[in-house]
Specification:
alpha+beta; Alpha-Beta Plaits; 8-stranded mixed β-sheet; two-stranded antiparallel ribbon; 36% helix
């Protein structure tokens, strides 16, 4: 393999590496065919910060392999299908959305990007810590999946506590609305599809910043505890969904518990 001394390596652009971590450390050089082959063989030895970083590095490495005419046969079989690691069958989704993001953009201007990056890092830590997988992060939203309901709830609580703790630029308050919903979506080459995905999105849109709203399907997976209360919000009908959804609000002593009525949907059965 071609050697890279420190001086030569320092002159390479970030694009010549498959992975650059949040501290600027550059790994897996891909500036020529020899380095691409070496990066392919060492990919599994690299400690990535999160699954999103792993997937970005994977795609960059595959593009480099194509550019330099390297056929990554073994790598393709082991790494080309990141979706194969996602749980199948009955899963629980967690969707979050930053409340009043436009007001935050107006206040922070260019620093809003730094805030969103910090928010996502906290969400990714909580998701990984609970055994979940990040599915997507775009705009102000963060979407994750878990193989069971309790793990998803643990991540949701950890995220809300992290949002409260900050610190955030100019001491702004970051409030995220959250939804937990369980179902049996179909896992395709492009991700999860099915009614469960749309239901999670509808519930999240109706929630308020700081609030965790759980569907009846997820509620059935959670065991009651002394520290966590699941208060009935009644049954709500949402646009595009055939049947109303039984919803519950997660309440714990150290997080906000008082919220207005859901901002979307129609209440069809009052809370029990």
């Amino acid at each position: 393999m071609a050697r890279l001394d420190a001086k030569t390596r320092a002159k390479l652009p970030d694009s010549a590496f498959a992975y650059v971590d949040s501290h600027g450390k550059r790994r897996l050089p891909i500036n020529d065919a020899s380095h691409v082959r070496n990066a392919l063989s060492r990919f599994n030895q690299v400690q990535f910060e999160d699954e999103s970083a792993r997937d970005r590095a994977r795609l960059r490495l595959l593009n480099a392999a194509k550019k330099h005419g390297v056929v990554p046969i073994g790598f393709i079989s082991a790494q080309l299908q990141p979706l194969s690691r996602l749980p199948k069958g009955h899963v629980t989704f967690l969707l979050t959305d930053i409340e009043s993001s436009t007001a935050l953009v107006e206040r922070l201007d260019a620093r809003y990007g730094t805030l969103v990056s910090g928010v996502r890092q906290a969400m990714r830590r909580a998701t990984r810590g609970a055994g979940g997988h990040e599915i997507d992060a775009r705009g102000d939203e963060f979407f994750a999946v878990f193989s069971d309901g309790p793990s998803a709830l643990a991540a949701a609580l950890a995220i809300q506590r992290a949002m409260r703790a900050g610190p955030w630029p100019e001491d702004v308050e970051v409030r995220v609305r959250m939804a937990l919903h369980s179902g049996r979506p179909t896992l395709t080459e492009t991700g999860y599809v099915g009614l469960a995905v749309h239901t999670t999105a509808r519930i999240c849109y109706g929630a308020h910043g700081g609030q965790i709203v759980v569907s009846g399907a997820t509620r059935a997976l959670l065991e009651p505890t002394e520290s966590v209360r699941l208060r009935s919000l009644g049954a709500w009908r949402f646009h595009g969904l055939r049947e109303p959804e039984e919803l519950y609000q997660v309440e714990v002593a150290d997080l906000a518990r008082s919220f207005p009525e859901l901002r979307a949907g129609v209440l069809v059965v009052p809370p029990r």
